[in-house]
Amino acid sequence: MKKTVGVIGSGLIAASYAVLLTGHGFPTWVLVRSERSKEKLLAGYRSHFSVMIKNGILTEEQEKICETYLHVTEAYPDMKDCTVFLEAVTEDKSIKASVFEEIVKNCPDTELICSASSAITPDMMLGALENSPYLEAIEGKLIIAHPFYPAHIVPYVEFCGSSRTEPDKIEEAVTFMKSLDREPVVLKKPTPGFIGNRLQFALLREAIQLVEEGICSFEEIDRALKYSFCPRYTSIGLFEHMDYAGLDLDDKNCKLLFPIISDRKDTPPSITERLAAGKGGTASGEGFYDWRGRDLEAYAERVNEPYWKFCHWEFPEK
Predict the structure, then answer these.
(1) How many CB atoms lie within 10 A of CB 235?
(2) Domain over 196-309 is classified CATH 1.10.1040.10
(3) pTM flag (> 0.90)
């Protein structure tokens, strides 16, 4: 019998988690704050499935079966039968801490509390609970299980325990995520940003430096990524490639490039100046690019396209 899973949140990750869980036949309860949040959650949930149907991943009949596994509530006591929780609320350690308290207070059979935090370490979260009467019930079960969006399409999940996490809990979490066709990685120790975001932002820092030095444009950076090495890393790993190229060559390139690669510690002007000008990205219509009048649905299709090959699930039949 599959575990009953609780999801806390109504945003992008929560809706994506609900698709992943119900698509694998797990009874799923999602906690939202209001009727409006419920509508938002269900709209996102059904939209994700609609895109999957469009791409031939499942049929409309299968989607209807999946939705029978979904329950949405505004009350923690309704989730009393849940044993695994996936927290996906705003990136604030105090808010997350209050969620953990409500979970253990209302759900006595809680086995795992997995936070989708993208930067806050579990020890930081426990720090916000030092004076809580529920700390002991939380600390051994709390781990980071950081997905990449969309969580139902991108298979990677990075795990990280706190100094107080019970070792077997990480194993349980990894086993659970593997049952959802995820590809987990366990960090040996916590670090802000974990693996994925540290790598992405290291690349971002150097990309912006190249532009600010007048070497190329933002558009040319994106073209370089799309048509040079990024496609390679969808089928092989970075260190596999380094071995294949030869460590003698890597050594020479390190000596040449490491001294000139950016090591700045603050947010680059390319970002701060745009923010000051009200150019915050797609939501405001402008960022690095002018998004006004562009087809964002077509952009979303391009975002998802490389990941459909990972979505061959065994959908529930009844």
Answers:
(1) 7
(2) yes
(3) yes
